[in-house]
Design brief:
This protein is an alpha/beta fold. The chain has one domain: Amidase signature (AS) enzymes, CATH 3.90.1300. The chain is built from 16 helices and eleven strands. Helix 4 links the parallel strand 2 and strand 3. The protein is globular, with a radius of gyration of 21 Å. The protein starts with 6 loop residues before the first helix and ends in a 9-residue tail after the last helix.
């Protein structure tokens, strides 16, 4: 069955001429038809268009890294000529006028886009319940959430309606759904991947990353999309390692740090158990494990919920019904046009964050809130840098709980925000982080998070590859 094969295996089959790109797309389209009604991962499926594109790719082009291979894209990344809705009513009919840099790079390597996936509106949420269109479901238990905000991409990768997918991560939006859906999700160092063509939520935190079931697949796609881009002033002029080759060179000696503050939070018993078992296994590999301290991470959630909404209130000011997107009907003047459009077009969570952010930036409050949050953010970064003088990577659970039930946390925003308590510090510090499946408890996946030094995605991918060889989590396929 082609849809069960990894991206790397499919690539080899295509290169050898044993399989055609059209057959690969067909296989994943069939899998989509079997699973989509239950999971609801996609806002805009594009398999038929991908099939037409695949017909043009009959003869392998040896140097193209993703020749004829399918990939799903979170629906806040622009794909020219296709709808980019951000799962919001305000952009319901918006068609992207150009390709995001990451899409340009994928197309250059001849990847085929099979669909735009569901998310929490404007990537604001941790459960994909805040989509304006529908809730995506966790493939392991359809009564539970897939995590968020990139829940559609995580679920699509988990059920294998696509072998890999792109997501974006502002406070955990790749790693948390990867943990909930039992797949690998990597958020690279801030500046590693261009944000040009990613619809902005919080510009100093957002970063595009990759979901996959196999480390090699994730490494290959990350390699393709990374690198400096003149269209994004925050992208870094750093050489891109050949991760697809480096990934198997597993380090023999490593020091792994466990932040003691992370265990002062309320962690669900099953998550804690799974994490302890995982660390014991890594110790058996000969790695040294030691406790480290990150004293300021306890302020990460309040800091994040000042910085992110402040930047969101500024970024989302452009949705006013004037130039593009939804426009309200029946208004007397420009101010009524603005307020009615935004009231009707935005969902409750987006409005909540815009108001939070606008308040934090308002005259008389800027220094007390936003400026102070940025100072605390610096302290969190310095904690990590101090810890990295003693250890090579930092390990923690990805989420404090197992996937929760749909509707369980929507009435309590604070409880929902706390589901990112272990991932948010990584974004505030601009570091790379990866979530890998480390166990199944009560038939639900548990994710382990590895955090690296700036620009050291390599060690994270190597450790992920090492664990994958032992645990073979990719053999677990829901709804199969």
């Amino acid at each position: 069955m082609l849809w069960k094969k990894s991206l790397t295996e499919l690539r080899e089959l295509i290169q050898k001429g044993e399989v055609k790109p059209t057959e690969v797309i067909e296989a994943f389209y069939d899998r989509f038809k079997q699973t989509e009604e239950k999971v609801k991962a996609y806002i805009t499926p594009l398999y038929e268009k991908a099939y037409e594109e695949a017909k043009k790719l009959e003869k392998p082009e040896g140097d193209k890294k993703l020749f004829g291979l399918p990939i799903a894209i979170k629906d806040n990344i622009l794909v020219e000529g296709e709808k980019t809705t951000c799962a919001s009513k305000i952009l319901e009919n918006f068609v992207a006028p150009y390709d995001a840099t990451v899409i340009e790079r994928l197309k250059k390597e001849r990847a085929l886009i099979v669909g735009k996936t569901n998310l929490d509106e404007f990537a604001m949420g941790s459960s994909t319940e805040y989509s304006a269109f529908f809730t995506t479901r966790n493939p392991w238990d359809l009564e539970r959430v897939p995590g968020g905000s990139s829940g559609g991409s995580a679920a699509a990768t988990a059920v294998l309606s696509a072998p890999v997918a792109l997501g974006s991560d502002t406070g955990g939006s790749i790693r948390q759904p990867a943990a909930f859906c039992g797949v690998i999700g990597i958020k690279p160092t801030y500046g590693r991947v261009s944000r040009y063509g990613l619809v902005a939520f919080a510009s100093s935190l957002d970063q595009i990353g990759v979901f996959g079931r196999r480390t090699e697949d994730v490494a290959l796609v990350l390699e393709v999309i990374s690198g400096w881009d003149e269209m994004d002033s925050t992208s870094a002029k750093k050489p891109v390692p050949k991760w697809s080759e480096e990934v198997k060179k597993v380090p023999e000696r490593l020091k792994i740090g466990i932040p003691k503050e992370y265990f002062e939070y309320e962690l669900q018993k099953e998550v804690k158990e799974a994490f302890e078992e995982w660390i014991k296994e890594l110790e058996k590999e000969g790695y040294e494990v030691k406790e480290v301290s990150l004293p300021h991470v306890k302020y990460a959630i309040p800091t994040y919920y000042i910085v992110a909404p402040s930047e969101a209130s500024s970024n989302l000011a452009r949705y006013d019904g004037v130039r593009y997107g939804y426009r309200a009907k029946g208004y007397k003047d420009i101010w009524e046009l603005y307020s009615k459009t935004r009231d009707e077009g935005f969902g409750a969570e987006v409005k909540r964050r815009i108001m939070l952010g606008t308040f934090a930036l308002s005259a008389g409050y800027y220094d007390a809130y936003y400026l102070k949050a940025q100072k605390v953010r610096r302290l969190i970064y310095e904690d990590f840098m101090k810890a990295f003088k003693e250890v090579d990577v930092i390990a923690s659970p990805t989420t404090p709980t197992l996937p929760f039930k749909i509707g369980e946390k929507t009435q309590n925003p604070i409880e929902m925000y706390l589901s990112d308590i272990l991932t948010v510090p990584v974004n505030l510090a601009g570091l790379p982080g990866i979530s890998i499946p480390i166990a199944w408890k009560n038939n639900l996946p548990v994710g382990g998070q590895l955090i690296g030094r700036p620009w050291d995605e390599t060690t994270l991918l190597q450790l992920s590859y090492l664990w994958e060889q032992k645990f073979k989590h990719y053999e677990m396929i829901p709804l199969s």
